[in-house]
Amino acid sequence: MTESHKLFQSVRIISVCTFLSRILGLARDMICASIFGTSMVWDAFTVAFKIPNLFRRLFSEGALSAAFIPVFTENIEKRGKAEALVFVNVIATALIIILGGIVLLGESSFFVIPRIFQMQEKWHLIFKLLIIMFPYVFFICMVAFMAAVLNTLHHFFMPALAPVVMNICWISGAVLAPYTGKTLDTMIYAIAISTFVSGLVQVIIHIPILRKKEIYYQFIPRFSHPGLKLVLTRMAPVVFGLGIVQVNVLLDSLIAVGFSSPDGGPNHFNFAGIILHFPMKAGAASVLYYSDRLIQFPLGVFGIAVATAVFPLFSTHAVREDWNKFSTSFNKALKFILFIGIPASLSIIMLREPIVDLLYRRNKFDAESAYRTSRVILFYAVGIWAYCGLHVLIRAFYSVKDTVTPVKVGAVCVGLNLILNLSLIWVLQEGGLALSTAISAIVQIVILAIILQKRLHIKIENEVFVSLQKTVVASIVMACACWSTLKIFPDLNGGGSLYFKGLRLFVPMLSASAAFAGTSVLLKSEEFSHLVRLSLRKT
Are residues 476 and 441 both part of a single domain? Predict the structure, then answer.
């Protein structure tokens, strides 16, 4: 089996599992939107959930995997499986101790802070939800570590399937929520408890696969182990860089809550003796959440899937110092990311209103919520291709043991994002937060691509730019076909049957897909041909 086929086969496994997870995630968000809408209660939950989720993104999509996978790969390649297993247990033991301390510190802080400071009710609710959900940090970070071990051993199925479990637990909590209380304030606790339970279940389902791979846990508190020191040394700048980025994501939600007028409260606030009107209304954090969830669909199914699958290949080529294969793998991954990301950006921009109308608009999620959400999606979608590409570019740096450059570039772009956030909210409301994210991601990917060519063993070949041109042409044709077909179905302002709403979304989507596929065939797109061959080939 060729390396190219292995890569795309791994991508397919991850993508299928992630696609199932995203479908279930959409189902869970539809249920929650129907129950909670864009209320202050859901604002509070989204902020509370982002704090433990911040650790998940740091570990599962960043620092831990970036530092661990190359060192684990090197242990397997040069020292054998026995020594590699000791290394795994040393890291696992250190993680259990560190994460346990973090959870204890967080729990005590969330209990004490609201009792010391005077706060509005929405902030009290955030801290109450955090007390329930913060232990999720321990479980999900251990899941991230287990996934990194299995991914290095080229097992992608269970790590990719784990988020499905999380969504099933969350959906169960949402279905049971109306039976747990009569107000939104009480029903939200069912969602919080289901989040905690999902973390525990995800840990449990990984254990049989690890045992099958002959990976058994032993308590080895060997803090002088050179592998542990190396991982911690490499994690430090990545944690710093990604920590800034993820804290900035959290700040988006905090800005959305803090700069929103409270329900039934004043529409202005005092700043340095100046009376200012709130730039946003209550529900801004909820709108950002629902919009981001839709944007995460193509990002998770394709962008993170490609980056996850290609990272072990990058690491192996780097250890062997085979820079020709490294460059080849990088260019193939980049072409595939752009081939998926660009049409995804355009299609979501074109179909944002039918998507929101079909998925969210019902019960508590009214016309205003739908309008605000579709508007934010427009600004987020501008950068989908960049969000996807960043995961591949950053992992290329990590695999050659350069964790500093992405940190520096990320820190600059985080500063840019924060400045844009505090500027654009006064003009575009919550849409300004989304546009700031997109602009910052595009700037970051451009800077990293330039640095890759100048400083690392990577060269972006001409074939990438040829592929990009074909993808852009096919995407423009796709957008025209989508727009023409969409004009056939009138906007009934939330009215119409579920069947009509489905037609209004899926008919233009099919038309756009056909146009993109047909144009790709005419232009002899290598990526499209490879996808077709792979889909027809047995796994």
Answer: no
Task: Tell whether 523 and 382 lie within a shared domain.
Answer: no
CB burial of residue 193 (10 Å; 0-12, 13-18, 19+): middle
Nearest to 393 by CA among 448, 324, 440, 316: 448
Type and span of the H or E element at 406:
helix 404-428
Burial class (CB in 10 A: 0-12, 13-18, 19+), 267: exposed
What's the token pair of residue 208? 């049989």
In this structure, the strands spanning 280-281 and 260-261 are parallel
* Domain carrying residue 339: 3-460
Please tell me the number of Cα atoms within 13 Å of 382 on its side-chain side. 18
Q: How many CA atoms lie within 13 A of 347 on its CB side?
A: 26
Q: Are residues 427 and 521 in the same domain?
A: no
Predicted confidence band of residue 265 (pLDDT cuts 50, 70, 90): low
Question: Of 460, 489, 524, which closes a domain?
Answer: 460
Question: In the numeric block, which tokens belong to residue 254?
Answer: 């905090």
Provide the CA 175 distance to its chain's centre, in angstroms.
24
Calculated CA dihedral for residues 425, 427, 430, 433, nearest 10 degrees: -50
Final residue before a domain boundary, out of 431, 460, 489: 460
| Residue 387 token pair | 């969000």
440 and 480 share one domain: no
Give per-residue pLDDT as tens, 337-374. Answer: 888 888 988 999 999 999 999 888 888 888 889 999 99
Based on the domain organization, do 519 and 407 belong to the same domain?
no
CA-closest candidate to residue 336, choices 453, 468, 514, 458: 468
Q: Which residues contact 67 (CB under 8 A, 6 or more apart)?
A: 230, 231, 232, 234, 235, 238, 398, 403
292 with 379, same domain: the answer is: yes
Beta strands in 110-162 (DSSP E): none
Residue 459, both tokens: 């060269």
- The answer for residues whose C-beta is within 8 angstroms of residue 225's C-beta and 6 or more apart is 86, 87, 90
Number of separate domains in the chain: 2
Q: How far apart are CA 354 and CA 369, in angstroms?
A: 14
Three-state secondary-structure class, residue 281: strand
Please indicate, yes or no, whether residues 446 and 469 belong to a single structural domain of this protein: no
Q: Can you tell me the distance from the alpha carbon of 84 to that of 148, in angstroms, rounded to the nearest whole number?
A: 13
pLDDT per residue as tens digits for the range 187-231: 999 999 999 999 999 999 999 999 988 888 888 888 888 888 888
